[in-house]
Structures are given as structure tokens and as C-alpha cells.
Amino acid sequence: MEEGPFLRRIRTEFPDLQWTSHRYLTHGWDHAVLILDEALVFRAPKAKAYRDALADEARLLRYLRPRVEVGIPDYVYRSADGSFAGYPILVGRELDAATFGRLSADERGRIADQLAAFLTALHETPKSVARECGVSEQDPRQDHEDLVRDVEALVLPRLAPHEAHVVRAFLTELATELAPACRTALVHGDLSGEHILWYAEKQRVSVIDFSDRSIGDPALDFAGLLAYGQEFAEHVVGRYRGRKKAGTLRRARLYFRRGALETMADALQGYPCTFEEGYAEFRVLAGASRPRSASERLR
Description:
Strand content: 5-15%
Shape: globular
């Protein structure tokens, strides 16, 4: 939804709302976002599939809110046709690697504890509740086949032969890990720095953007935490009280590495990311450059 029409829709749907300033954000993959007076966040899905799922997302978050201790969106404004919705802004700064790197050991420990408790509650949500809220189940095999197809067709032609060899070896390793039946659970699906907020004054974590929620491998929700370093991810897994299957962190590392291939393939299909970004990550995967720190990886 374009900025002007979006503002007009908000005024029409919620005539009692008043504001003096706004910010319009379009860098997200799935939603356009308007922030009013740094107090309210309105999200408008860009694609029909996400528009249809917005009401389901709000319903799931209503279920989760009393069961988690971190902040999550509370959609108190919903348009009549379901095409957009809004919630009071969650205070905090995106927990990118640079911000994380400036925190004290005590603060990092508090964040790890809060994320572990959040993931425990999230993953223990009954699947029946998730399904009632429109959450779909992942098909890991099909997802892997789709990734292999896209990588073979789009990414490998741009790589040197030795790089293509590394990619194929990694995809084989990933396919092998998918073979055993994993316990599945409700997962956030994109738990990374841009969706984790840290409110230093209150020492509180908030989690946003549940657009990629699904029933899948719980290890997915630990993958993005590896951007903060192996030690932090291990801390979260250690404090996690959900049912852990052996190899949770190993699978998380595979999913984290898979992201480089996904970024390259997505960029070549027109998504708002760059091939260069994914290729830089791939060079670490391939051992073509020295391993970088978490802060370097996310700059």
C-alpha cells in the first residue's frame, strides 16, 4: 500500500486517531509499515497471502500474550476488510550485532534468559491451537527441493567451479540432516536481530514480525541467534526448557549457513536483498575468506 492511500485508509477507518508525524517504511519483505508519532505501528501486507493471514496472526498473538514474558505486538486496530492492522509500538532498539556487541555480559545473559523462556513457551504451544490460528506445517523435503532447484538454476551459474562444489556438498549435508523425523512445534521462523528489540532502560526483550510463523523444526528459531556468536546461542539452548532433540544446535548451524544460499537465490528472483550480501556470507561458508565476527557479518 502506498504512503498516501495508507494514511487516508487509517484516517477513514479510525477517525478518532490523531497524529502529528509519521514514518513510512518499505524495506520489509512482506509489509509496508507506517509509524505514527513513534507510538503506533500500522502494517499492511504487500501480498494477498499475507493479507489473508493477518487476522490469524493477530489471533495467535492474543493467545500467546499472557503466556510469554517478552513483549509481542497487540493488534488493537484492525481494518474492516483485514487489509491492515496496528498496535502500540514496542519500545526498544533492534538487536543487531553491533548493538549486541556493546552490551555487558549481564545484559547478554538477561537477553538469553528471556529468549530461552520465550522460545520454550512458543514451542510448547499446542499444535491444535496453532492450526486453529491458521498456522501451516512446513514440508522440509519440499522446501529443500525448492532451494536446490533455485540454487542450481540461478546461483551456481554465477559461481566458480570450486565454489559450486562446496555448495553441492553443503546441500547434500543439509538433505541428510533432514532425513530423521524431527519433533515439530510452533516456530517464529525468522528470529533475527531485526525482529528482536532490546529496551535497555527496562532490561526487556520484545519480539516482532510473526509473518513467517509455522509448525516446523524448533532448531529454526535458534539459527538466527548464531549471529551473536556460538557462546550466546549455546546459552539460550542451555536455558531452554522445551523438549530438545539431540542435534538441535547442529541443525541450527546448518539453517544459519543455508541463509547465504537463500539470500543469493532470493536476490536473483527480485526480493529486497542483494546477491552480494549472500555471496559475502557464502565465502565464509566456503572457507574462501577468514571467518568474520558477528558484528562484521551483519554490517
